[in-house]
Amino acid sequence: MAIAMICFGLGAAAQEKAATGDERVIVPSGQDVRYLDTVQSAPGPEGLTIRFRFVAPAIARDGATVDVEAAQADMEVLCNEFALPRLPATGPAPAQIIISLSDRAVAFGEPAPEATQFFEAYTIIDGRCQWEPF
Asked: Is 110 a domain residue?
């Protein structure tokens, strides 16, 4: 399983949102993961895409305590246990769910070269998240 790592900018609005968003999510690695937001307004390559974004400081490049494999396992759990139950009950079903972990709050779509971010894409098959390579 491969992981996409992209670096993007830290916006003031994202910092404020993270400061108020204190919903901690339990993941297998035990790292401190907090829900940041959900983005539904940006289509993905497969059509309707819903992005669930999380802050996970332990993935930071300098002094990371959670490796890529552990982050991948965490993202799969976030997709199945956090994202799936929060999908809209009405309207079209998403073609893809993207789970992202960032070591700090980052405004969606803005550059932040100092941030470490991991992304994984999933399709929904038989009510479960199925990883798909980017």
From this structure: yes
Q: What are phi and psi of 95, to 5 degrees?
A: -80, -25
Q: Name the domain count of the chain.
A: 1
Predicted TM-score (pTM) of this structure: 0.81
- The torsion region of residue 91 among left (phi > 0), alpha (psi -120 to 50) and beta comes to left
* pLDDT tens by residue, 95-130: 999 999 999 999 998 989 999 999 999 999 999 999
> Residue 58's CB: how many other CB atoms inside 10 A?
19
In a domain, 91, yes or no: no
